[in-house]
Amino acid sequence: QVQLVESGGGLVQPGESLRLSCVTSGFAFSSDSMSWYRQAPGKERELVAGISSDGGITTYADSVKGRFTISRDNVKNTVYLQMNSLEFEDTAVYLCNAVTGVGTGHVRPWFSSWGRGTQVTVSS
Fold it and tell me: Which ranges of the chain have pLDDT less than 50?
């Protein structure tokens, strides 16, 4: 059974930072590219960042470039998202998933079942 458990979200003010974690199990984490997506109410789910299996290739949405950093620990089977300089528009539920296509410009989720995600709310 694939498990994707996101944590680390919370309520912050604009300009502050959060670090999200996604602890995984049930698949060959170290062989798979991973990603963070986000979904806000009334909006489509969008790719935020992706990282190759060995961490050598990363990709980011234009809206978060320079502010967010994706990383992974293949011993802990965990992927992270460091979010700095948070803005109102970053408010969303953040979810992780394995992906295909990192480095190709066409990243797509691999597992059809998503975790519950973790809520990030940026408010003044």
Answer: none
